[in-house]
Amino acid sequence: MAIVSTLWSLALLGAIAISLCFTGNVSYRLAQNSFHAATDEALTEATINRAVLALLDPRPDHRLALNTTSRFTLGGASVDIRVQDELGKVDINQVDAPILIALLQWAGLDGVSASALLDKILDWRDRNPLKRINGAKADEYRAAGYDYAPRNGPFQSLDELLLVMGVTPDLYRKIVPALTVYSGRPFVDPQFSPPEVLAALPSLANAVAAQRAAGTASYGGIGDPMLALKGRAFSIDVGIARPNGVAHHHGAIRLTGNPNEPFWILSWQRS
């Protein structure tokens, strides 16, 4: 009997030891994840500040190159950063019909389908309760079985476009690199446009290619960049190298022109 009790005691101690080891391993992993998250947050904040300083550098040849990936070491980590001027994209809240039609047709829609989807997009952002010929307001959404209605106001984010009747995930993936909600302008500055915008608006592509080849597509010669870039929005992609992969962060900022608070963060997320 004493032997049985001893064996049970040893088994119990073994189970406790295994449990403590498992708990300790989980705690270690949680602490490690928290440490990496805090480190990434600090590195991302430092990277944003570095990017803003480079954008506002009064020396044209020292300013940050846009639409290209820059790599540097920060805090012992390898960091990639890519900055895009949002004025080079199509603002879904401000764009005129011909530009959006061209983008939709470039994404694969025929003229009739593009025109019909344009009406639905405009009806989503339009405060007017009356729908366009091929548009959709609350009644049409209810009739189609949706449990929501159009915002009747500006898009708050690009992924809201997926809620518009007729916008498929495949179409969204094609056009979203060309879109923004931050420029606040009905026009596009093509010298800072991503390839999707230039492909959709080919009349601009040759002139822009010549500008970029000549190295004139920059903020050189604009005087004080703090004032010249006031109000401009920029999207920023940050990649932080980790032993088990790359931590990606994406967001948007707006330059304020205020040296005490040079930028506002409009959005930020880890992807």
Summary keywords:
Ribonucleotide Reductase Protein R1, domain 1; Pantoate--beta-alanine Ligase, Chain: A,domain 2; 7 strands; 2 domains; 271 residues; five-stranded antiparallel β-sheet; globular; two-stranded parallel sheet; single chain; alpha+beta
Summarize the topology.
Elements: H1 2-55, E1 69-74, E2 77-85, E3 90-91, H2 97-106, H3 111-125, H4 138-143, H5 169-175, E4 179-180, H6 195-200, H7 202-214, H8 225-228, E5 233-242, E6 245-255, E7 263-270
Parallel strand pairs: 3-4
Antiparallel strand pairs: 1-2, 2-5, 5-6, 6-7
Helix pairs in contact: 2-3
Q: How would you describe the overall organization of this protein?
A:
The protein is α+β, with helices and mostly antiparallel strands. Helices cover 42% and strands 18% of the residues. The chain has 8 helices and 7 strands; from the N terminus they run αβββααααβαααβββ. Strands 1-2-5-6-7 form a 5-stranded antiparallel beta sheet, covered by helices on one side. The chain has a two-stranded parallel sheet with strand order 3-4. Strand 1 and strand 2 form a beta hairpin.
User: Strand share of the residues?
Assistant: 15-25%
C-alpha Rg (nearest Å): 26 Å
- Tell me the number of structural domains: 2
User: If strands are numbered along the chain, what order do they take across the biggest sheet?
Assistant: 1-2-5-6-7
At a glance:
The protein is an alpha+beta fold and 271 residues long.
